[in-house]
Known about the structure:
Layout: H1 6-24, H2 43-60, H3 74-92, H4 111-136, H5 142-151
Amino acid sequence: MPIDDIETLVRDLRASREFLMRHLRGLADFGWDYKPEAAPRSIREIVSHLIDDDAQAIANLGGIAAADNNVKDPIRALEASSEAVIRALREQWKDDPSGAEKRLHGDGPSVATGVTYLQIEDYYHAGQIAWLRLGIEEDWDQETVVYAPWNSA
């Protein structure tokens, strides 16, 4: 069954980004730049990459992306970036909220496919962040911090 409305996409995008944010909250300052040899990116670099992805999504929606890639406050920057994508989605489709299956441009992917890509990025990078975080905070309780809020709902 295709996703046929923008608000469903917004809800799902918020859920994937919240999952990722739970991996970031409470990270010690030194953890943002921790990068073992086996890791392609630090957590700060992952956040920067996600902000770049959000900026590209906004551009694909026909908006002007003003990505705040100043990751001195990575959580704030990523939250702002995520909200900018949601505003762009709603603005682009405000007159046709069932436009989720429309093409972004020409024969490109649908809006729903583009949002799904952003969600996949959130979940993929949450895994990377968890691996990095467990390398620096052995007592970090991922189960409680990330999953318990959903398990108790």
